[in-house]
Amino acid sequence: MYPSRVRVHIESYGCTLNHGEARMAGEAVQSNGHSVVSDGAVADANILFTCTVIDHTERHMVARMKALVASGKPLVISGCMAAIRKERILKIAPGAVIVAPGDAEMIGTLFTGRSDGAGPKPGGTVPATESAEAIVPISQGCLGQCTYCITRLARGRLRSYHPDLILARAQKYLAGGAKEIRLTAQDTAAYGRDIGLSLSDLVRSVASLPDDFMIRVGMANPATFGDIIDDLVEVYSSPKVYKFIHLPVQSGDDGILERMNRGYTVNDFRRIVRRFRVAHPDITLSTDIIVGFPEETEEQFDASIRLIEELRPDIVNVTRFSPRPMTVAASMTGQVVSWRAKERSRRLSKLRFRISRELNSSYEGKILEATTIERGKKGTTLARTLNYKQVVVEGEIPLGSSVRVRIEKAREVDLIGSLAEPVTTTVADWICP
Q1: CA angle (262 as vertex; 197, 330 as ends), nearest 5
Q2: What is the pLDDT of residues 274-293, one digit of tens each?
Q3: Contact between 127 and 26 (Cβ < 8 Å)
Q4: Is 71 exposed, middle or buried (0-12, 13-18, 19+ CB in 10 A)?
Q5: Please, which contacts does 338-344 make with residues 24 or more away whose CB atoms are closer than 8 Å?
Q6: Paired sense of beta strands 7-12 and 380-385, if any
Q7: Sequence-distant (≥ 6) Cβ neighbours of residue 147 within 8 angstroms
Q8: Are 425 and 398 in contact (CB under 8 A)?
Q9: pLDDT at 425 over 60
Q10: Which domains does the chain possess?
Q11: How do residues 150-193 score in pLDDT, each as one tens digit?
Q12: Closest-CA residue to 1 (of 110, 112, 75)
């Protein structure tokens, strides 16, 4: 039997969707009269939100499971491994409670055994964080059939949440002081296709909320993003929407994209990027590349290099191909040897850091509007500009503040800035004419 008030420690890994569901679990825990603690040593129980996107990550999840099992405390496991690797989980943690991804909110009901007669607290609260951002999942699953992806097997086909539920959750976070709403999913651009709506409809609805805040639209597949591009370009004109897109291209070669079954061509990707850059010249572009996909030749890898040199994304997430169980790509011929994939990864990473440093250098000396979002290291505060550039500012500035920052220095992954004037404005002062 659990104590009347259970102290629960939550760990989450992997994608933003996973982190968002972990927060939902934390809210559910608190709604049921318990507490969320950051220190696992003082916890009565543990919750682990797992990721299994690549083999290296899954090995880390196994190590965390073993450590949590060794603590002797009750363990709840969710995330993608809970859906796709149950047998492996139960070998490591035979006493664990396994909760499928998408069912995070029911976790709060697991900690029963109260002796004080206290019932659940209505409404729930948001666990305290050193951040003014909120993650709002908008759907489960996707419409894709990518040959390498184990996540689609774990989360299934697209199941969009009703917009009323999404808006209610966003309003709850805003009432708690959030200034950044991150709309997240496996593929945000697929949102609503199963319920007769679209991502554009949803973003408009969220942007219509009266509070002062910004919206970050999460990762989207170019195959579905391209279908609604004209409407999305218009939606991005909203002053409440960060000028930021995360579009994983995965390869600069059409032959590799076909083997991946991504559903678009390199020129389709170019068209989306150019369309957005014409409408929003300062937009920040984030993309992903998988190197060493089965049968990838040097010429095909060089095509990825050329694409990055041509389009110059602000952010490139580089991943070496990892064969995942039950996926088509795991049994494909022409598996690229590890040393060659590593060499390609190093080449592409060197290029992407050079490009991001060059792009960021163009901001040096400028004064930009930004919102303080979270605490940084060593007494700093992290702020986000209108195009979602991260600025590290000295000092602990109140989170959620609208600030004007002077960019002093550019680095590969962020900007270093200082306050250009005292913190006296609100977000509304600079998003409204």
Answers
A1: 125
A2: 999 999 999 999 999 999 99
A3: yes
A4: middle
A5: 340/292, 341/291, 341/292, 344/291, 344/292, 344/301, 344/320
A6: unpaired
A7: 259, 260, 261, 327, 328, 329, 332
A8: no
A9: no
A10: 7-109 (3.40.50.12160), 133-361 (3.80.30.20), 367-431 (2.40.50.140)
A11: 998 989 999 999 999 999 999 999 999 999 999 999 999 999 99
A12: 112
DSSP secondary structure letters along 156-211: -B-EEPPHHHHHHHHHHHHHTT--EEEEE-S-GGGTTTTTT--HHHHHHHHHTSSS
Encoded tokens for 62 = 């196994």
- Total number of residues shown for the chain: 433
Take residue 337 and report the two structure tokens written for it: 């040897």
What is the per-residue pLDDT across 77-128, written as a single tens digit (0 to 9) for each?
A: 999 999 999 999 999 999 999 998 888 888 888 886 443 333 333 333 334 4
Using CA atoms of 146, 149, 154, 155 in order, give the dihedral in degrees to the nearest 10. Answer: -50
Q: Which is nearest to 217 in space by CA: 181, 173, 174, 183? A: 183
Cα gap 232→376, rounded to integer Å: 32
Maximum Cα interatomic distance, the chain, rounded to a whole number of Å: 68
pLDDT band at 3 (very low <50, low <70, confident <90, very high): low
Could you give the strand order of the β-sheet that contains 284-291, starting from the edge strand earlier in sequence? 244-246, 284-291, 315-320
- For 405, the enclosing helix (H) or strand (E) is strand 402-410
pLDDT at position 110: 86
Element housing 92 (H / E): helix 86-92
Write out the DSSP string of 278-330.
HH-TT-EEEEEEEES-TT--HHHHHHHHHHHHHH--SEEEEEE----TT-GGG
pLDDT higher for 393 or 1? 393
Residue with tokens 């949440």: 161
Decide if 286 contacts 247 (C-beta within 8 A): yes
